[in-house]
TrEMBL record, chain A:
Database matches in Pfam families: PhnJ
Lineage per the UniProt record: Bacteria, Bacillati, Bacillota, Bacilli, Bacillales
The protein's name: Alpha-D-ribose 1-methylphosphonate 5-phosphate C-P-lyase PhnJ
Entries under InterPro entries matching the protein: PhnJ (IPR010306)
Organism: Psychrobacillus mangrovi
From TrEMBL, chain B:
Keyword Nucleotide-binding: yes
Protein's name in the database: ATP-binding cassette domain-containing protein
Xref: InterPro entries: AAA+_ATPase, ABC_transporter-like_ATP-bd, ABC_transporter-like_CS, P-loop_NTPase, PhnK
Pfam families: ABC_tran (PF00005)
Keywords: ATP-binding, Nucleotide-binding
Ligase in keyword set: no
Molecular function, one GO term: ATP binding
């Protein structure tokens, strides 16, 4: 821990302002609360929104985990972890179950989160209606008036063009039956995890200066037409080539030389856990 | 016609600016044109009152700046009125001044009761979305959540306005002006509105396309019995479409009556000029 920096990088005034925005966001599930996004030592678009939330709610007893597209060791995740650790001295972990605070980019961990955990998601584009309406004051009014035909229209267009809803990530959701929310670019696979999640989910968009939240046990429903129900990515018949897990979100890897396709856990810490457990079991049986 | 009007407009006023002591005291009657020389306040619509009966086409004529489009924008809630009342006679909105409703209620009226065809298709259509999607937008807004139903409804509508089937999923920005206008008409008709507004629909289209669009409108009115308000500065359009006509000048109604009457036997000096200035 550096001696001269303030705890968790921010001054107390900044933390207070961001916490106030978070409180409001929790009080109105799915509503985008504007906040004074600060200049951060990482570039905008690299997770400044998530980082600001993390820094303003972190305490000395917290244990932090940072994920970048499922990986714990990517540059972005490592840099954020380093910054938070240097300014707070909190423990860092890679195991989902040990963490009390998880900052994530584009994934919700495979292990179900508990009520003692908080998930912070980094959001590049918080406005689900931006593609149909460029003007901020108009989209604000549309949210206020519960006018979400634009969000539905985008899905309708996808069905017209591709024969199915083709949102690879960031599939819009109805939160608490009121606000339509961009769940950050998590794959559709993770959308159902938000529904009645035990953990508090906070979403921060640094560049767009918005914070919003899904409080624990809140209804989160993915938008879907009557005759085109919501579906998640299917990995039917595939399993991780390292740990052998199935029924989780897998990455498709193509070997350039052989042209062979293999699948691998996207959540690296989950994969590691599975491998460790297997090994443990093996050690117990073979060397007992 | 002894039926009850479907739309009643009473003393609609729209001004741009707050007015000064001069124009407020003198009253707008003293103004030479529709603006105050001292403060620049524009009185775009002054005490416009009229009835629209079921199944009729009401024509509104007037020169540029006479307040035709402003009136239309006010009725369609694109602009707020300064004062005035309008009543839509259906079972839900019985005797409520629609200008005083909340913006949600206004939106619901736009989605269920009104259809609008703008002069410029850019205002009425989303140019980056497919034609089918454009029509579906209105259906979605009206609460439809079934893709198959919306797709078939949209296709039927586009067919009825003579858009070739193979171009239905194309964005209207690739279409010619006349085609865009026809897509707009299809969109406006998508939820069977009892009232349709047409704002200078044929302006900027060449003569043969104009005739095409006018025929289409006439046919729709005959088949569906929709009430329409047609704004135009083109007397030929009014003569062909409208049952009754209102003549606007400087934001005021100066003459109204059956179209034949107004155009064949104009009483007001300005209307006479207008009728005889035909090329």
């Amino acid at each position: 821990m550096k001696a001269n920096t303030h705890f968790a990088f921010f001054d107390e005034g900044s933390k207070k302002e961001i916490r106030r925005a978070i409180m409001k966001a929790v009080a109105i599930p799915g509503y985008q609360v504007p906040f004074a996004s600060r200049e951060m030592p990482i570039a905008r678009g690299w997770g400044t929104g998530g980082l600001q939330i993390t820094l303003s709610i972190i305490g000395q007893s917290d244990v932090l985990k940072v994920i970048d597209q499922g990986a714990d060791e990517s540059v972005n995740a490592v840099s954020i972890k380093k910054l938070v650790h240097e300014t707070t001295g909190v423990d860092i972990t890679e195991r989902t179950t040990e963490a009390s605070l998880i900052q994530s980019r584009h994934r919700i961990p495979e292990v179900p989160l508990t009520k003692d955990q908080i998930l912070v998601l980094q959001v590049p584009m918080p406005e689900p209606l931006r593609a149909v309406e460029a003007k901020e004051y108009r989209t604000k009014r549309m949210h206020a008036e519960d006018d979400y035909s634009g969000a539905w229209l985008m899905l309708f267009e996808q069905i017209m063009k591709y024969g199915k809803t083709a949102t690879a990530a960031d599939h819009p959701v109805y939160v608490n039956g009121r606000y339509v929310m961009a769940p950050s670019p998590i794959p559709r696979f993770d959308n159902p995890k938000m529904h009645h999640s035990e953990a508090l989910i906070l979403l921060g968009a640094g560049r767009e200066k918005k914070i919003y939240a899904v409080p624990p046990y809140t209804n989160v429903k993915s938008l879907a037409f009557e005759d085109y129900p919501f579906t998640v990515e299917s990995f039917e018949g595939q399993q991780c080539h390292l740990c052998g897990s199935a029924g989780i979100f897998l990455d498709e890897l193509i070997d350039q030389q052989t042209g062979k396709t293999v699948y691998q856990c996207n959540d690296t810490s989950y994969c590691m856990d599975q491998l460790n457990q297997k090994e443990k079991a093996e050690v117990q049986t073979s060397y007992a | 016609m002894h039926e009850e009007p479907i739309l009643e407009v009473r003393n609609l006023r729209k001004q741009f600016g707050t007015g000064c002591y001069k124009c407020r005291e003198l009253g707008t009657r003293e103004l030479e044109k529709n603006f105050c020389k001292h403060c620049g306040t524009v009185y775009a619509c002054q005490d416009i009152s009229f009835d629209l009966f079921p199944g009729e086409i009401l024509g509104i004529v007037g020169e540029s700046g006479s307040g035709k489009s402003t009136m239309m924008q006010c009725l369609y809630f694109d602009a707020d009125v300064t004062s005035g009342e309008a009543y839509i006679n259906n079972s839900i909105l019985a005797r409520q001044n629609v200008f005083e409703l909340s913006s949600q209620q206004k939106r619901s009226i736009r989605n269920h009761v009104y259809g609008m065809v703008y002069q410029n298709p850019v205002h009425g259509l989303k140019m980056n979305f497919s034609s089918v999607g454009n029509i579906a937008e209105k259906l979605i807004a009206a609460g439809n959540r079934n893709v198959a139903v919306m797709e078939s409804t949209s296709k039927k509508l586009l067919e009825s306005v003579h858009i070739p089937l193979h171009r239905m999923k194309e964005e209207p920005r690739n279409f010619s002006g006349g085609m865009q206008q026809r897509v707009q008409i299809a969109k406006a008709l998508s939820n069977n509105p009892p009232i349709l507004f047409l704002d200078e629909v044929t302006t900027g289209l060449d003569l043969s396309v104009q005739a095409n669009v006018l025929d289409l409108i006439k046919k729709i009115q005959r088949d569906l019995g929709i009430s329409m308000i047609v704004v135009s500065h083109d007397l030929a359009v009014i003569r062909m479409l409208a049952d009754r006509t209102i003549v606007l000048l400087n934001g005021k109604i100066i003459e109204q009556g059956l179209t034949d009457q107004v155009l064949e036997d104009p009483q007001h000096e300005y209307t006479q000029q207008l009728v005889y200035s035909l090329l």
